[in-house]
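Margin note: ligand = adenosine-5'-triphosphate.
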Amino acid sequence: MSKIILTGDRPTGRLHVGHYVGSLRRRVELQNSGEFDKIYIMIADAQALTDNFDNPEKIRQNIIEVALDYLSAGLDPSKSTLFIQSQISELTELTFFYSDLVTVSRLERNPTVKSEIQMRGFERSLPVGFFTYPISQAADITAFKATTVPVGEDQLPMIEQTREIVRKFNATYDEVLVEPEVMLPENEACNRLPGTDGKAKMSKSLGNCIYLADTEEDVRKKIMGMYTDPTHIQVSDPGHLEGNTVFTYLDAFSKPEHFEEYLPEYANLQELKDHYTRGGLGDVKVKKFLNNVIQEELAPLRIRRKEYEKDIPAVYDILKAGSDAAREVAAQTLSEVKAAMRINYFDDLDLIHAQTEKYKGIE
Ligand code: ATP
Ligand code: MG
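Resulting structure:
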């Protein structure tokens, strides 16, 4: 069986380092590993509209931002298909058919959607489209027969929902759909990178992000203002690592080489942590180190972004070509789905023949 990746992002803002460690960095590695037959990367504008229906301009403006972030991170349009969700109308058809296979109470149990509803204050004004977006995500994944979905931890309930839809579809109709596997980041800290304010998740909607496209100076300011341990007041005080965002970021970003280069008095992260918890290590020193580490990671992205920014029409061309290619694949799956659901009336000569026979001899 082919190995196929599908993943994507909502164009609700520029991409941030949470996206980078949670999914984007991995996609680039997987792309370059050559182990996958096909890689589809989707800009989920239709999904973004489910909770931004009244602000279409925001989504429209951010398509290019996300595309530039993709390209600057190293996604290569000659190896990966970059496309825009709304341009593949087959996805909405699949969503409609899959809706029959999911109950309202099942959707109500989705913990990620539950917390997103709360965060957006949607308790009494929940758009049906937002409530059912896990079904549309199942359409996105299965349209490309994806086997692997590299995402952050918040997406686990969506993949589970997709797997249930696949099993139900295949059992009810015919073995057409492929059950995907989730691929979480290997490093625990990357699963759900907290915001610079220490909140549970760095999220475009919460305004606590370090963006991939931030300038060097912006990044430095955000890091120097980051949430650490509120009880660590004097340098000599023992510090705590639990909930300390700076250390979580070091878990996500730092490599042994960084110590040699920027902080040679420590052999590795464990030594730095030990000193911090013992007391005698100031937050400013740790933040400066983190700044060096993150700047090193982001520098090549900034250079690539500048290049792509010079030719924006070419970026739209990449998205158009990707959307055309993606549409062909989704159309093929949709036709298999329709055949399995017995709604392919005009392609089925046997059906027409059988009906003809049935009415023969009736005057
Ligand atoms: P929104 O607030 O609009 O939902 P978001 O910041 O949550 O935006 P998404 O587009 O919903 O971003 O998520 C895209 C991908 O990035 C998903 O795979 C998700 O798991 C991953 N991701 C998002 N935020 C983080 C984070 N803080 N840490 C790790 N992965 C993340
Ligand atoms: Mg999200």
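The CA atoms of residues 138 and 166 lie 8 Å apart.
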